[in-house]
């Protein structure tokens, strides 16, 4: 089977850590099938990066860990910023149509798989219909849980879900949200994301701290995620201020980049937490496992989530977490090891973090263990294969119906 993957959420030369979970998924699928990636890159991201770093998009760039002959195209996506969001599907289609058509003609995929329902999913469904192949769309959470709050965007997303041949969600919670958009349950499949268990595995805490240059005796909180409002770092900062006021010694390391870096830095100084709340920037995958092992507790105070890769990786490294009770997080949390708190509640977050920082209970076995990327890819592969079979069978039935209709309505020549 040949799979063409369409999504802007994928690593590129300007943002090498963007959508690494999709790169890992494609890498695992590539062990089973031929794959090709078309990943649009925003013209705004390109301009911003060129201004800051004087770097240009390399269209021939591939993720550093790409294997199995994976190929990728990086067409530019042009659109008016902050307006006409419901029409972004049309703007994306106009922007990448030449690249996408060339890729389809050259690669001849059996199915188009897309991540992020709008605008990516809209273009995937449209291209699939034009070329007579099935389209499967994936949702990670925010596109269904947040974008649909806008009625115009909701209508566009609903159309994508209805027109696709199958829908894949990463949690039962998101599956329920998709069903509420009047999508038939039989069309929806839940597949949890995988984890590279060879990289993310339990290890010695002290050895991990030594490799990272951290205090071997201190209490450590680690939070991983891009610095954007939805990830709740402002709430985490307030919670840490409350913990500090209680006299509990700790250091919170925040790993990630984003638009809130400057404002968070200012508030850290205002709260007098320069030594206790440290913005470490984005970290390579090779170091993340040690951060999880080094932590006494992982914090994820997001306002909205699907099933976060951060928590799957943390669990695989033997970590405990405090996270918001949102999305699919309750599906993977262990009540004996983790704590769930209400989103946007710094008091409750501070209390839960303090409890786990002071806890000396041994870390036992979990009720939920993440699957490997290979196991996740096998589930995806079966869904894509079944979708192709149903699509082909449906075309055959349509052809038979058309042929039967033509026979019934053919004019019969009368004998002279």
Structure description:
With 416 residues, the protein is of the alpha/beta class. The protein has 2 domains: 2-194 and 382-396, 3-Layer(aba) Sandwich (Rossmann fold), CATH 3.40.50; 205-357, Rossmann fold, CATH 3.40.50.2000. 44% of the residues lie in helices and 14% in strands. It is built from 15 helices and 15 strands. The protein has a 7-stranded parallel sheet, sandwiched between helices. Strands 12-11-10-13-14-15 form a 6-stranded parallel sheet, sandwiched between helices. Strands 3-5 form a two-stranded parallel ribbon. The longest helix is centred in the C-terminal third of the chain and has 37 residues, at 373-409. Mean pLDDT is 90; it is low at 398-416.
Write the layout of secondary structure elements.
Elements: E1 2-6, H1 20-29, E2 34-38, E3 41-42, H2 43-53, E4 71-73, E5 76-77, H3 88-107, E6 111-115, H4 117-131, E7 135-139, H5 142-145, H6 151-163, E8 166-169, H7 172-179, E9 188-190, H8 205-212, E10 220-224, H9 233-245, E11 251-255, H10 261-270, E12 277-279, H11 285-294, E13 297-300, H12 309-316, E14 321-324, H13 329-332, E15 339-341, H14 346-358, H15 373-409
Parallel strand pairs: 1-2, 1-6, 2-4, 3-5, 6-7, 7-8, 8-9, 10-11, 10-13, 11-12, 13-14, 14-15
Helix pairs in contact: 1-15, 3-4, 4-6, 8-11, 9-14
Pfam families: Glyco_transf_4, Glycos_transf_1
Organism: Gimesia panareensis
Keywords: Glycosyltransferase, Transferase
């Amino acid at each position: 089977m040949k799979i063409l993957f369409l999504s802007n959420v994928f690593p590129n030369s300007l943002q090498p850590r963007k959508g690494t979970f999709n790169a890992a998924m494609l890498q695992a699928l590539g062990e089973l099938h031929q794959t090709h990636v078309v990943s649009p890159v925003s013209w705004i991201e390109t301009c911003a990066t060129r201004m800051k770093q004087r770097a240009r998009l390399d269209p021939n760039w591939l993720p550093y860990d790409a294997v199995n002959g994976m190929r990728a195209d990086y067409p530019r996506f042009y659109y008016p910023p902050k307006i006409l969001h419901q029409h972004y599907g049309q703007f994306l289609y106009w922007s990448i149509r030449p690249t996408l058509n060339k890729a389809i003609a050259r690669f001849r995929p059996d199915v188009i798989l897309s991540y992020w329902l709008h605008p990516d999913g809209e273009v995937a469904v449209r291209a699939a219909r034009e070329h007579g192949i099935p389209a499967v769309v994936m949702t990670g959470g925010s596109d269904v849980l947040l974008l649909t709050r806008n009625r115009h965007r909701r209508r566009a997303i609903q159309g994508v879900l209805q027109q696709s041949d199958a829908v894949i969600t990463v949690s039962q919670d998101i599956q329920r949200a998709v069903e509420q958009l009047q999508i038939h349950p039989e069309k929806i499949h839940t597949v949890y994301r995988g984890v590279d268990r060879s990289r993310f595995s339990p290890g010695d805490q002290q050895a991990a701290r030594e490799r990272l240059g951290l205090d071997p005796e201190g209490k450590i909180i680690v939070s991983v995620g891009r610095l954007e409002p939805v990830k709740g770092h402002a709430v985490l900062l307030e919670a840490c201020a409350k913990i500090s006021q209680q006299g509990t010694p700790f250091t919170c390391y925040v790993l990630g980049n984003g638009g809130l870096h400057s404002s968070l830095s200012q508030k850290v100084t205002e709260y007098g937490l320069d030594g206790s709340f440290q913005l470490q920037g984005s970290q390579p995958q090779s170091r993340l496992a040690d951060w999880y092992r080094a932590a006494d507790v992982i914090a994820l105070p997001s306002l909205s989530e699907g099933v976060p890769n951060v928590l799957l990786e943390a669990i695989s490294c033997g970590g405990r977490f405090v996270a918001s009770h949102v999305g699919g997080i309750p599906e993977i949390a262990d009540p004996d090891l983790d704590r769930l708190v209400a989103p946007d509640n710094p008091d409750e977050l501070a209390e839960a973090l303090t409890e786990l920082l002071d806890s000396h209970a041994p870390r036992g076995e979990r009720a939920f263990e993440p699957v490997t990327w290979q196991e996740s890819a096998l589930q995806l592969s079966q869904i894509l294969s079944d979708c192709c079979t149903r699509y082909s069978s449906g075309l055959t039935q349509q052809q038979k119906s058309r042929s039967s209709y033509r026979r019934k309505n053919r004019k019969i020549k009368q004998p002279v």
